[in-house]
Structures are given as C-alpha cells and as structure tokens.
Write a structure and sequence with these properties.
Elements: H1 3-18, H2 25-45, E1 56-59, H3 64-86, E2 102-106, H4 114-126, E3 129-133, H5 141-151, E4 157-159, E5 175-177, E6 186-188, H6 196-206, H7 251-255, H8 274-282
Parallel strand pairs: 1-2, 1-4, 2-3, 4-6
Antiparallel strand pairs: 5-6
This protein binds flavin mononucleotide.
GO molecular function: ATP binding; FMN adenylyltransferase activity
Catalytic activity: FMN + ATP + H(+) = FAD + diphosphate
Keywords: ATP-binding, FAD, Flavoprotein, FMN, Nucleotide-binding, Nucleotidyltransferase, Transferase
Length: 307
C-alpha cells in the first residue's frame, strides 16, 4: 500500500458507512456528523490550505478521536485528489497521488503506556505518517509547537481531533487562530460536533486496528501516572449476566465492519503490552468492559485521575 491507496481505502470506509442500511439513532447521527466534517474539509479547509503542500499538518497522539479524524481526513484527501484530476486534460491513469507521507506532529509530554506507543508505531506505517515527535518532558505544549514550527516553517494550519465535550472544547470553532500565549498558526477542528458514540460507531465499523488499551476499559488516555481504566466500566463479580447494566451499542458496526467477509464479534485491537498488564494488575484495574461500552460523553474522562 501507499498513501494514495490507504486514502482510497478510508474513502471506501466512509462511503460504505454513509450507505449503511441501518437507521439506529447512533448511526443516523454519525452519518450527519461525517457529512459535516467532510464539508468542512472539502469546502472550507482544503481550498484554503492545500493538503498536497506542506501548509497543513495533522496533530496525532494515537487516541480514538484523532484516529477517527485521520480516517475522515484521508477519505477527504482522496476525494480532493479525484476532483482535482477530473478537471485535468490528461486521463486518470497519468495522475499520481501527490503525497508520499502525511506531515504529522506528535506532542509527547509525559510517560505514556507502552501499548499506546506500540500502536502509534503501527499506525505510523499503516497511514504513512511522517511524524515529528517533540522531545519528552522538556517543554510545555506551546513550546513544543514552537519547536515544531521552527522545523516546519511552511506549516500554517494544524488539524486537531478535539470535541466540544473535551475540557475547554465548548467554545471552540472549526477554524480559529491559536491563543495569544501560543505560537501563531490556525487550529483546524472539524471533529468538534462529534459525540463519543459517533466516534466509536465509525471507528468500530472501519475495521481498522485501534489501540489495545480501549479493549481493557480505557476511554480516554493520558499519561501513565494520571490514567486508569474508566471506573464506570468495572466488572463486578456476579454481575456479568447483565454487564452491570452496560450494553454494547455497536454490535451492528462490529459484526458488519467494513471488509469483513463473515459477520464476527471480533474487534481489531493492537497487542496489549505485558508491561502495561503489570501496571494494571498492581493497581487492581485489570477487569473492565471495553471502552466502547461507555457512550455517555460526561463520563468519558472518569479514568483521568491520579492513581
Ligand atoms: N490550547 C489553548 O489553550 N490554546 C491554543 O491556542 C491551543 N492550540 C492548540 C493547538 C494544537 C495543534 C493542539 C494539539 C492543542 C492546542 N491546545 C490549545 C490545547 C488543546 O486545546 C487541549 O487542551 C490539549 O490538546 C490537551 O488535550 P487532552 O487533554 O485531550 O490531551
């Protein structure tokens, strides 16, 4: 595969999702969310910052939100490419996809889980990300971006997978300048209107490998010292039959995931690292339902506390 092929694959995922023959409330609202994001990219963002130049970059940390946004970004990149060759005087076979890798920035400030690091490595090659990684523990986030911009002087805009329900997310806009205490560039935030259930619905349907921490009950991943699995997903002994009242709302997406030849209950997750297993075992936090059993946005960060 190359970046053009994986972009075409992501385009097929979203197109297939949009034609899904299922009118559950979650799938209906996710279709609306996808169309809004797609319009942002194709009508507002790409005409302003050419995605085939180095004007635009993608902020990637391996989490579920930015992976969902990356699938949408690549899908739109493919569509943008198709529309650009339509107006060309040469036949389609003469057109090469103009990008070999996607400029990506990974701000890594604190010690993260090994499982997440390994999953980032996998996605790095899966999606042809050319990742700039900030030096760990050396700088604040604005400092890290200042360094990034010093190395990537053409970057004008950075795509971020933040949502309205994230801390400080409520008043953000899809396209806005950074705050005055940050280095100056445009923040591109086309996932703001997505709910937690929208993110899970697309991601689980995509059949793309997701970070193995989510299967262990994580719903939001920060540093090792400040993240545990979500307490609302804890399995209590004897309560297995009704899952503590929790339910998998994404059975359809999982069983009918893109590219599955037969419906199965398998979710593709990255390998769970033995060093993380040890950390969770010591903290007594190994027995949790998968992260996608939680769809209440207000509880998403309940595992983001000190141990
Ligand atoms: N936070 C600000 O207060 N002002 C900013 O101008 C700003 N710009 C950002 C630009 C980028 C590319 C990124 C990745 C983040 C920026 N942030 C800014 C911080 C985010 O709003 C958010 O607080 C941060 O990514 C932490 O999110 P997390 O807790 O989900 O990891």
């Amino acid at each position: 595969m190359n970046l053009g092929e994986v972009s075409a694959h992501c385009y097929n995922i979203t197109t297939s999702y949009l034609s899904a023959n299922n009118d559950s409330a979650i799938i209906e609202s996710t279709k609306v969310a996808i169309r809004i994001t797609r319009n942002h990219f194709l009508q507002e963002i790409f005409p302003r910052w050419n995605p085939f130049s180095d004007q635009i970059s993608f902020s990637y940390n391996g989490g579920k939100d930015c992976q969902a946004l990356l699938i949408l970004y690549l899908s739109c990149l493919w569509e943008f490419f198709l529309s650009s060759i339509q107006v060309s005087q040469y036949p389609p076979e003469y057109h090469l996809f103009p990008l070999k890798s996607l400029p990506t920035v990974y701000i890594n400030q604190a010690e993260t889980f090994r499982t997440l690091e390994e999953s980032i490595e996998t996605t790095r090659s899966r999606y042809f990300l050319s990742v700039y990684e900030s030096p760990r523990n050396q700088t604040s986030m604005p400092e890290a971006f200042k360094n990034y911009l010093e190395h990537n002087t053409h970057t004008q805009a950075i795509v971020i997978g933040i949502r309205y329900t994230d801390p400080f997310g409520a008043d953000l806009k899809c396209v806005q300048k950074t705050d005055s205490d940050w280095p100056e560039f445009m923040r591109i935030q086309p996932l703001l209107h997505w709910s937690l259930s929208n993110v899970w619905s697309l991601l689980l349907y995509s059949n793309e490998e997701i970070c193995g921490l989510y299967e262990k009950g994580f719903t939001s991943v920060g540093s090792v010292n400040s993240t545990i699995p979500n307490p609302y997903l804890k399995r209590s002994p004897g309560a297995d039959r009704d899952n503590n009242g929790l339910k998998n709302h994404f059975e359809w997406e999982i069983r009918n995931a893109y590219g599955k030849e037969e419906p199965t209950d398998e979710v593709r997750v990255s390998a769970f690292s033995s060093s993380d297993a040890k950390i969770l075992q010591e903290a007594g936090t190994l027995n949790y339902y998968p992260g996608w059993f939680l769809i209440d946005d207000s509880l998403e960060r309940a595992g983001r506390a000190r141990r």
